[in-house]
Design goal:
It is a single chain. By secondary structure, this protein is an alpha/beta fold. The protein folds into two domains: about 250 residues, Alkaline Phosphatase, subunit A, CATH 3.40.720.10; about 110 residues, 2-Layer Sandwich (Alpha-Beta Plaits), CATH 3.30.70. The chain contains 13 helices and 13 strands. The strands form two sheets. Strands 9-10-1-11-12-2-13 form a seven-stranded mixed sheet, with helices on both faces. Strands 3, 4, 5, 6, 7 and 8 form a six-stranded mixed sheet that branches. Strand 5, helix 7 and strand 6 form a beta-alpha-beta unit. Helix 1 crosses helix 12, helix 10 runs parallel beside helix 12 and helix 11 runs antiparallel to helix 12. The radius of gyration is 20 Å and the shape is globular. The two termini are about 20 Å apart.
Length: about 375
């Protein structure tokens, strides 16, 4: 018999309804990413996501049940003080973040900006919360004239640096981010420094490229460390500073993640941990429910292929890391429950309702792989198997 294997796929930003503490995170309009997307477009066609219970967890009409597979589904409530990819993924692996990482609704402290400018030998532009696609249109021409990096943040704990690839070579941008990461120490210990390269002209408009790179804080000990040799796809290894992961090529879009997942399923990895971010990055942040719905429909192909490759002892877990409701005025992440669905060869459907803690995901992985859950990690959750 094959050795047990677990594949966790995070559908980035696919929230399942506003959390009880959503107003504490600035979400006063009751976000519900999956349901509001469904309502905004008059429904979309995603029968496999419906069959796994993933959509039902998000309040979307449909009846779970998948021929040849057992399905267990529900919703998870985040315990960490945040609503971003770092806190979401870290909590899945047993780290509850409290207090929250710092955010900067008025821009970064002048002392931090001056230290960064001194270290890179040039001034910066911006220094305020902004939509990444909008601020490069606004400040892109000035950036082309001066070579000054565009510095901005959001409602999340991020220090984002945008540069035109023909003005600041990509490796130099990554070096700027490495410098910023070292400078962003307590009390300015942002969860992520992010390189945001772009191309284009003032006349034709600027577009972000797919060479984004994340520079997160070094995580505490977590379940990835306990497993070791995890095969991470997309941004996942970066969120854990690469520790505990195999070295693989960084994929940058759902299409690339799909191809990498296909390859990973043919490997000897026991734990595959993937993030598909186009839902969030391309559509949630741009308030595009139609695009969000199309992305869910396109994921059906990924899901169908993955299900066809599952071995008798495999477990597939679908979840999310936060919400990003494309129908609300905000373009930021939203504090929501997230769906969770565990699928394996077999029969039957069961709902676990609402559970506390994203570490349900890690606990479920540990249970399936026959591994002990480290005593130093979040002890409030349980496996859903």
């Amino acid at each position: 018999m094959d050795s047990p294997r677990v594949i966790v796929i995070v559908l980035d930003g696919c929230g399942a309804g506003f959390a009880p503490d959503a107003p504490e995170f600035g979400d006063h309009d009751e976000p519900s990413t999956l349901r509001h997307t469904w309502d905004a477009v008059g429904g979309f066609t995603a029968p496999l996501l419906a069959a796994t219970g993933y959509l039902a967890a998000g309040g979307v009409p449909g009846t779970p049940g998948l021929d040849g597979f057992s399905v267990t589904f529900g919703r998870l409530r985040e315990l960490s003080k945040g609503k971003d990819s770092v806190t979401g993924h870290w909590e899945m692996m047993g780290i509850v973040t409290d207090p929250a990482f710092p955010t900067y609704p008025q821009g970064f402290p002048i002392s931090l900006v001056k230290a960064f400018e001194s270290a890179i030998g040039r001034q910066t532009l911006g220094n305020r919360p902004a939509s990444g696609t909008q601020i490069i249109q606004e400040l892109g021409p000035q950036h082309l004239d001066t070579g000054f990096p565009i510095l901005y943040t959001s409602a999340d704990s991020v220090f984002q640096i945008a540069c035109h690839e023909e003005v600041v070579p990509i490796e130099q941008l990554y070096e700027f981010c490495t410098i910023a990461r070292a400078l962003c120490a307590k009390p300015n210990d942002v969860s992520r420094v992010i390189a945001r390269p772009f191309l284009g002209t003032a006349a034709e408009g600027f577009v972000r490229t797919e060479r984004r790179k994340d520079f997160p804080l070094e995580p505490p000990f977590n379940f990835v460390d306990a497993v070791g040799d995890v095969l991470g796809l997309g941004v996942v290894p970066e969120l854990f500073a690469g520790r505990g992961f195999r070295h693989v090529r960084r994929t940058q879009s759902n299409a690339e993640h799909e191809a990498a997942l296909r390859e990973a399923l043919g490997s000897d990895a026991r734990f595959i941990f993937a993030n598909f971010e186009d839902f969030d990055m391309l559509y949630g942040h741009r308030n595009d429910p139609a695009g969000f719905a199309r992305c869910l429909e396109r994921f059906e192909q990924t899901l169908a292929e993955t299900l066809s490759q599952l071995r008798p002892s495999d477990l597939l877990v679908l979840t999310a890391d936060h919400g990003n409701d494309p129908t609300t005025p905000s373009t930021d992440h939203s504090r929501e429950y997230v769906p969770v669905s565990a699928i394996a060869r077999g029969v039957g459907v069961s709902s676990v309702g609402d559970l506390d803690g994203f570490s349900v995901v890690g606990r479920t992985v540990a249970h399936r792989l026959g591994l002990a859950w480290p005593k130093t990690l979040d002890a409030s959750s349980r496996s859903i198997l």
